[in-house]
Amino acid sequence: MHFNKNQKGELKGRKLLEKYIKYKPNLDNLIKSEIDYMDFNHIRNSLDLLQQMKKNIFAMISQQGPLNFLVTFTSVEHRWTPLVNTLAMLHDKRKKRKHIETIEDCNINYLIRNNPVTYGCYYRHMINALKKMISQEKTFFGEKVDFYFDTEFQNRGSECEHGLLWVENAPIYGVNSNNDIENFVDNYLTCNIDHLDPKLAKIHEHHHTKSCKKIESSHCRYNLPMPPMRSTKVLELLGIVDETFNEKEKMLYNILEKKEYDNNNSFD
Fold first, then answer.
1. Which whole-number Å values give the CA distances from 111 to 40, 77, 84, 89, 97, in the listed order?
2. Please, what's the b/e burial string for 198-207 (b: 16 or more CB within 10 A of its CB; e: otherwise)?
3. DSSP 8-state assignment for residue 173
4. Average pLDDT over the chain, rounded to whole?
């Protein structure tokens, strides 16, 4: 490992030998120091890499203005028929293709855990193709001026992607009218799942997990379910709120949480 420099100019051009970093106090002091070393710049979650990513995003916001879309893509590996079939073939050492419907979820989990490299390569190829399509095609979120993607790992070990998109001629809050912003959003986003396959529609429905509520009596930290609206609206700050507002909010949340409603409810 070679050092470039630090603020005081110490260690410049000197080598850090292996025997020095094997001593834990030395390693702790090294990690906490502000030494500008290049070997950690490409290590995920290292301080230098995170600072570099932060500077890049701030520079993009400074040049392109407020971002227009924040997107997140996560894997649903249990629904990826080619991947599951390939993993089953590798495990069974035969070329006979199994149908994904005949493989139980527990067996799919076993196949993925025992073939992490195959799963990782398949996911990376898919996400790279998706990012290329989104960044180049006008159909998805319009003509892109700039974009930024980053990979995050979930607790279960699978990857997910977060992306920032800047779109050409996108309306800006406070400059354009709220009606222009609402029409722009409706061109690319929808809450209607009628056109989706029932299996995909089920995936797009939020189900509470232990991470949603840190306290049993608390609400979901994602503020779901959200009150429905007839159309896309830019919400402004409320003015004077009456004394019954909190009670109405709690009553509406309970109705949505327990699904005690039908299609005739207007929620007005």
1. 34, 11, 8, 10, 15
2. eeeeeeeeee
3. B
4. 77
Write b or e for each residue in 75-90: b if 16 or more Cβ atoms lie within 10 A of its Cβ, otherwise e. Answer: bebeebeebbbbbbee
Asked if 190 and 203 touch (Cβ cutoff 8 Å), the reply is no
Q: What distance in Å separates the CA atoms of residue 57 and residue 67, rounded to the nearest whole number?
A: 10
pLDDT in tens, 77-86: 777 888 888 8
DSSP string computed for 52-90:
HHHHHHHHHHHHH-S-SEEEEEE--GGG-HHHHHHHHHH
Counting Cα atoms < 13 Å in the Cβ hemisphere of 117 gives: 1
Residue 154's contacts (CB-CB under 8 Å, 6 or more residues apart) are 74, 160
Residue 228 CB: number of other CB atoms within 10 A? 12
pLDDT in tens, 220-268: 877 788 888 888 888 888 777 777 877 887 888 888 877 777 665 656 6
Q: How far apart are CA 31 and CA 35, in angstroms?
A: 9
Q: Could you count the other beta carbons within 10 Å of the beta carbon of residue 68?
A: 21
Q: In the chain, what percentage of residues exceed pLDDT 70?
A: 76
pTM of the model: 0.70
The CA distance from 248 to 242, in Å, is 10
